[in-house]
């Protein structure tokens, strides 16, 4: 009985830690959003098959709900991801899913050359020049990494970053501790000032 209780406490602590870490990452390197025009960038994830994978489906849903979150005057959804093993691009697979499954009919732009997060940011920059606010939708650790990369490449555009709707309490709760551990490993490339929330 005591062992079960101990395991339950450890399990609950792991879930709470995963939730907290992902919540915190979703709020780093962003400002409060306001009116004006908006771009929501959805980053693709390793899609070697001819159908959109689970991670990319979730990222597209997070991107679309990020479009709806603020009621910006003018919003564009930018899907970023290069060639897959199936001969199409992640951007196209995500666009097909957004339109045919989720019924998205808003403005959509595709960036279809990127194979890394750094390239995602480099290649979407021309599509961000004329918007007032920028959201990057992905898992919180990955979105933070992308925001840090935008800050390195174009500090002026990074000033326009606002929070996407890619973190929700309880969503993916069982895997959030694993996502947090993986995030800690992937975010080791960031400097200390890129990991902190604004004061």
From TrEMBL:
Superkingdom assignment: Bacteria
InterPro entries: DUF218, Rossmann-like_a/b/a_fold
DUF218 domain segment(s): 39-154
Protein name: YdcF family protein
Organism: Streptomyces ossamyceticus
Lineage: Bacteria, Bacillati, Actinomycetota, Actinomycetes, Kitasatosporales
């Amino acid at each position: 009985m005591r062992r079960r209780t101990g395991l339950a406490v450890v399990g609950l602590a792991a879930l709470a830690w995963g939730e907290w870490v992902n919540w915190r990452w979703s709020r780093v390197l962003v400002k409060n959003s306001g009116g004006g025009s908006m771009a929501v960038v959805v980053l693709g994830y390793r899609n070697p098959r001819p159908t959109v994978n689970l991670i990319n489906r979730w990222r597209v849903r997070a991107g679309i709900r990020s479009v709806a979150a603020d009621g910006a005057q003018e919003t564009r959804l930018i899907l970023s991801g290069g060639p897959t093993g199936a001969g199409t691009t992640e951007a196209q697979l995500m666009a097909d899913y957004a339109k045919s499954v989720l019924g998205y009919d808003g403005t959509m732009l595709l960036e279809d050359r990127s194979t890394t997060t750094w390239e995602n940011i480099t290649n979407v920059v021309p599509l961000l020049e004329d918007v007032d606010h920028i959201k990057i939708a992905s898992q919180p650790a990955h979105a933070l990494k992308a925001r840090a990369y935008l800050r390195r490449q174009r500090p002026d555009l990074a000033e326009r970053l606002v929070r996407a709707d890619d973190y929700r309490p309880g969503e993916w709760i069982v895997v959030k501790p694993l996502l947090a551990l993986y995030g800690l490993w992937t975010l080791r490339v960031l400097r200390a000032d890129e990991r902190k929330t604004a004061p």
